[in-house]
Amino acid sequence: TGEYIGSGERWMDDEHEIDVVDPIIKARLLLTFRNLNASVPLSDPDVSYLNTALVQPLVAYLNTNYIAIPIDSELHIPLSNFDGSWYPYEAGLYDVLSEAVYNELVRDVEEQKKVSKLADLVLMMLNG
Fold first, then answer.
1. Cβ proximity of 74 and 26 under 8 Å
2. Which whole-number Å values give the CA distances from 87 to 28, 75, 79, 82, 91, in the listed order?
């Protein structure tokens, strides 16, 4: 038996205050994007030249691997995000999904760069 104090952080027992850790929902995200085609306009008033340049490696990766791009990520969402939320947007679920997919795509692009650098190194060694 206990009495609730505050916003989900403390409970008052008969004699002691007890700290309560906010539980976290863990979910595994498995997506496969198929037949993607991406492009970035060279000049767009809404997008700066710097942002256009930063997106180019990701667009190149999407166009190179357009047949299937697997996304395998784990989501961590505090349960308190769902307090009073009626929609996934209010709980911050779309932000967590977006960040997870972005991080996975960036990791894939970096791995592809490592493989191409290794292939270049092997070719250089074979050529002498």
1. yes
2. 20, 17, 14, 9, 7
**Residue 36 near residue 66, CB atoms below 8 Å:** yes
The pLDDT of residue 2 is: 44
- Which residues face 5 on adjacent strands? 10
For 40, half-sphere exposure in the C-beta direction (CA atoms, 13 angstrom radius) is 19
Length of the chain: 128
In contact, 104 and 74? CB cutoff 8 Å: no
Angle between helices 49-64 and 93-127 (to 10 degrees): 70
19: confidence class by pLDDT, cuts 50, 70, 90: low
Strand-pair category, 17-19 with 24-34: unpaired
Q: What's the predicted TM-score (pTM) here?
A: 0.63
Q: Would you say 76 and 95 are in contact if contact means Cβ atoms under 8 Å apart?
A: no
